[in-house]
Amino acid sequence: MNDNAVPGTDKMMMTTMEMFVQESDRHPPVIFALASGLSRAAIAVMRLSGPGTGRIVESLCGRLPAPRRASLRGLWRRDGDVPVLLDRALVLWFPGPESYTGEDSAELHLHAGPAVISAVADTLVALGARPAEPGEFSRRAFTHGRLDLMQAEGIADLIDAETEAQRRQALAQVDGAQSRLYQQWADRLRVLLAHQEALIDFPDEELPPEVEQELVNGLRVLHATMQDYLAMGEGAERLRRGLVFAIVGEPNVGKSSLLNALAGRDAAIVSTRAGTTRDAIEIRVVMGDVPVTLVDTAGLRETDDEIEAEGVRRSLFHVKQADCVVHVFAGNPPSSRLEGDGVLVCNKTDLSPAPDGVIGISVLTGAGMDVLRDVLADRARALTADRASAPFTRARHRAAIEETVHHIGRAQAMAWPEMRGEEMRLAMRALGRLTGTVDVEALLDTVFGQFCIGK
Fold first, then answer.
1. Which residue positions form the known binding site for Mg(2+)?
2. Which of 184, 190, 240, 192 lies closest to 215, judged by CA?
3. Alpha-carbon distance 52 to 89, whole Å?
4. Which parts of 95-134 are beta strand (E)?
5. In the chain, what are the domains?
6. Residue 26, SS3 per DSSP
7. Which of 85, 206, 269, 443 is the most exposed place for a label (fewest CB within 10 A)?
8. CB–CB of 26/87 below 8 Å?
9. How far apart are CA 359 and CA 342, in angstroms?
10. Long-range contacts at 329-332 (CB < 8 A, ≥ 24 apart)
11. Annotated binding site
12. For residue 413, what are the contacts with CB-CB under 8 A and spacing of at least 6?
């Protein structure tokens, strides 16, 4: 059969649609989405997944290509009895379960013209498919066991990665680095729980005395291991979301000029008039391979101006929220330092030298700026240092591990075997929420709703 022949000469469109109506009563619908995005490009990748994908592909191009091999085909629809060519595209067929979603799937590599994409999408709808919701492909992959919840979140992070460090971290999560560690903990806890159940169910049996001792020792070691893991800090989570560096100081010390210099563009208005900056200005940059949001704040001083006073209040708020405070002054050092982990910077060294032990710069001449950039980059790297072999990257992960540690700690303190066993079961449940093995339904919409369409 000619691969570019008009398909469906022995089938009418209505027959195909009737089959899809019957199919949808028993199986999830076929979904489709433009996986390559909407930006101008030469090629657009339309992804399909679900039972019945094969029939849709056959209706479009006549017959299925060989699995996982690209085949150039004509894509057709019917206008009454008249076949209409939509595009000539590369078609790939991925029969389940060996596909990303675990279902029958396909990709159509189209010419990326808007008219082509629209015509193919309309035809897919006519054949019984529907547009995918955000994250629905990955959610189906999770449902069919092709990836766990940690890996699914890693895919979302990989799509959003701005820097090389974020890419490496997300890729490690996609490859299952975190999942393997948490699974090891779950396996150890499961064995300990089995020992506990044996002690409860067979109290009159002569079980080896070392069973009880191994249980107690195992709980203690696992509890300490997970506590150490939590103590390693939030570096990976900070790297995923990016850092916030707040630039603060009194009026007219050059905060806005410093922001512009670090950003490499005129993002903030610079004026010799005090109180020019009334609201925070945020600029996203990369420092030390870490995404950093620089926040230019209003000058800190007592003022009767209601708007400027509100700006000062917001500046103090940003200081409390910032990962690092860049405290800028000119001339004499400030009498008091703001709270928080920060960097003290003396600007306008072209007019007077910086005090000893303080980073001196001149935004006007550029003197000292390279040194300051290096210091801030080192600070960004230190705040996101990966000291764990498989660090947690989200607050959800930390909360689940903390809950697990809490229940294991309570289990150690329980004298009654039944109460100890219950605390261990609660610990297992909390740990299972990390990878999605138990109690995950409430998490799914939140996790997968953050995805882009087509992933």
1. 256, 277
2. 192
3. 20
4. 105-111, 130-131
5. 13-132 (3.30.1360.120), 149-235+390-448 (1.20.120.430), 243-383 (3.40.50.300)
6. coil
7. 206
8. no
9. 12
10. 329/249, 329/250, 329/253, 330/252, 330/253, 330/254
11. 47, 107, 146, 252-257, 271-277, 296-299, 455
12. none
SS3 171: helix
Indicate the annotated binding residues for (6S)-5-formyl-5,6,7,8-tetrahydrofolate. Answer: 47, 107, 146, 455
CA distances from 406 to 167, 222, 396 (A): 32, 12, 15
For residue 110, what are the β-bridge partners? 44
According to DSSP, the β-strands at 82-94 and 105-111 are antiparallel
* Beta carbons of 407 and 426 less than 8 angstroms apart: yes
Per DSSP, 71 falls in state: E
Encode 69-99: b = buried (16+ Cβ within 10 Å), e = exposed.
Answer: eeeebbbbbbeeeeeeebbebebbbbebeeb
CA-to-CA distance for 249 and 406, rounded, in angstroms? Answer: 42
- Among residues 365, 333, 340, 371, the alpha carbon closest in space to that of 351 is found at 365
Closest to 68 measured CA to CA, from 97, 95, 31: 95
Q: Which residues make up each annotated binding site for GTP?
A: 252-257, 271-277, 296-299
Cis peptide before 353 (omega within 30 of 0): no
Residue linked to tokens 């409860």: 200
